[in-house]
From TrEMBL:
It comes from the Bacteria. One of its GO terms (molecular function) is DNA binding. This is PLP-dependent aminotransferase family protein. It comes from Alkaliphilus serpentinus. Transmembrane segments: none annotated. Pfam families: Aminotran_1_2 (PF00155), GntR (PF00392). CDD domains: AAT_like (cd00609), WHTH_GntR (cd07377). In the C-terminal section; belongs to the class-I pyridoxal-phosphate-dependent aminotransferase family. SMART domains: HTH_GNTR. Residues 3-71 form the HTH gntR-type domain. SUPFAM superfamilies: PLP-dependent transferases (SSF53383), Winged helix' DNA-binding domain (SSF46785). InterPro entries: Aminotransferase_I/II_large, HTH_trans_reg/aminotransferase, PyrdxlP-dep_Trfase, PyrdxlP-dep_Trfase_major, PyrdxlP-dep_Trfase_small, Tscrpt_reg_HTH_GntR, WH-like_DNA-bd_sf, WH_DNA-bd_sf. Keywords: Aminotransferase, DNA-binding, Pyridoxal phosphate, Transcription, Transcription regulation, Transferase.
Amino acid sequence: MENSKIDMVKDYIFNEVKAGRIKKGQRLPSCRELSAQLSINKITVNKAYNQLERDHRVYSIPRGGFYLVDSDETSTNKGNVVDFQNVRPDDKLIPYREFTHAINRAVDLHKNSLFGYETPEGLPSLRTTLKHQFEKDGVYTSDDKILITHGAQQAIALVLQAVFLNSKGKLLVEAPTYNLVLRMAKHLGISVVGIKRMADGYDYKEMERLFKSGEIAAFYVIPRHHNPMGYSLSERDKQKIADLTNKYQILVIEDDYLADLGSKKGFLPIHYYDIKKTTVYIRSFSKTFMPGIRLGAAIVPEAIRQEILDLKHVSDLNTSRIPQAALDIFIRSGMYQKHIKRVRKSYEAKLRKSAEIFKGLSPKGLYYHIPDHGIFIWLELPKDVYGLALEKKLLQVGIKVKEASEFFPEGWLTENQCHNIFIRLCISGVDYDGLDALTQLLSAIRPDEAPIF
């Protein structure tokens, strides 16, 4: 009898969501309100809400009620679309309840200072915590060299401004690379040069030629879980990059945004091999944890440190103290590591399933890369199959994919005669069963069914 009443409460909430009367992030009716409306005991309503929270469909704030999560089951706009475009964590893996407790604990511990301004560098206790966290990954530094930012993206933007504000040099990027960095560079008027990123690294003769020319001021690189290709550099590659950039005094901007997802044993960052310590090392807590808290960290060389601090101070004064304090508590309590293990396990299982599907159904002429770790799958399409047309065709059957032209420097694809043949897939926000849509995707790539302009 009680179970049927619990189901009644849950059905009521689902119907309210579908009707658009309860939206993402909105507070649910209180137990008292819904109890009176449905003529059900308040305890039963509370049990139903707790079940929804365990299913990661709602989250609670102590003494603040229950709030709707934007999940596959409760969203009003996702429908039956399988989204391989969106780069965000799986909603079911986001630790809403645990992090809410960390926020409340942070407010309790720091109530006398938490709502004041923070220093531009960031909360001292979090910087100390991150110093120890980074050491586990072979990143050795001191607290005073760590800068807390509004996500990795702000860290990259600050570095680009500091380096190129008074420089006529060019930015070397991988081709392909993170599309927003290309947009940042264009917005800041920075000239960009591309070097091809391959499964086995780069053409190092070409890299040295570019460095030797004296035109390159900085090299932006994603060493592992590359966006969009999913590749990770070997130790030899990272050592070579460090040697060349030290030789020609090139600043390295190392974006290790998915470091927490792990990689092969013994993986070390470029920062480790950089004997002159001129590498800017950047980490993110968005893609594997909570996009909304917008926290990142950067280890900044002394030569540009003050310039970056000045730029940060005039742009946003500081990074909010509340999420910093909560993240500090979340990491030190061990909850962050527990969360990351869960995320790794989920994503690695998805990648294994994806690999099995591709192995059995991959059409002739398709080149693909599916890593053991990370979130991206990279496709190079067969002859006469075009990325934009494939993207449009798949959208008609409820599958979103990303044609990859925007990940390349302007003009690079045309110069190299490989325009419109690449697709990026992201598995992070797709649930395990949703990966079955890859079967339909591969069917659409077959030559006899291929979309052609």
